[in-house]
# Entry
Amino acid sequence: MATPPAAADAPPASGGKKKLIIILAVVLVLVLGGGAAAVLLLKKKAPAEGEDGEEQAAAVHTPAAAPKPGTPPVFVPLEPFTVNLADRDVDRFAQVGVTLEVVDAKFGEQVKLYMPAIRSNILMVLSHKMAADLLSLEGKQKLAKEINREAVRPMGIELDDEEEEPPPDEAPKKKKKKKKPSVVSPVLNVHFSNFIVQ
# Structure
């Protein structure tokens, strides 16, 4: 009786196992090497891209972010706001049209992504105002500063509140804290397109 040809032609089992082990080892080394390289590249890119919130805020809001002279301004119009004012003696309301002037078109697109939160913040500011607060020029200027602060807050940008300093004859009771570096707002101006108080 003859032996089957498949059994006679089969190579010894130990040679095939060695090749398989070598191939698996090479694949494992390549995968580990690729993973280590990816980790190193991501660590180098992270600070440059500003994934840390403080680094990102500092990078975006430096004075160098101001538009170059001669470039046209970028405006982001908001839908008009109609709110009941905080007057208690009589029902008063205000209709205010706001347009934000921003540093560049890229930031303008970012503002549009955060629009629901921005509108909510501005509505909250407006609804706490009284008619007398909004009728004077100083009141409108103060409102513009508050809108500027609230427009960038949803993006994680905290602007300093401009509080009035105590009179020089009053001695400060607390020690002054170290001043943080001031953050420059990417919203250059707040423009009012209409302003009706009734």
The radius of gyration is 32 Å. The chain has seven helices and four strands.
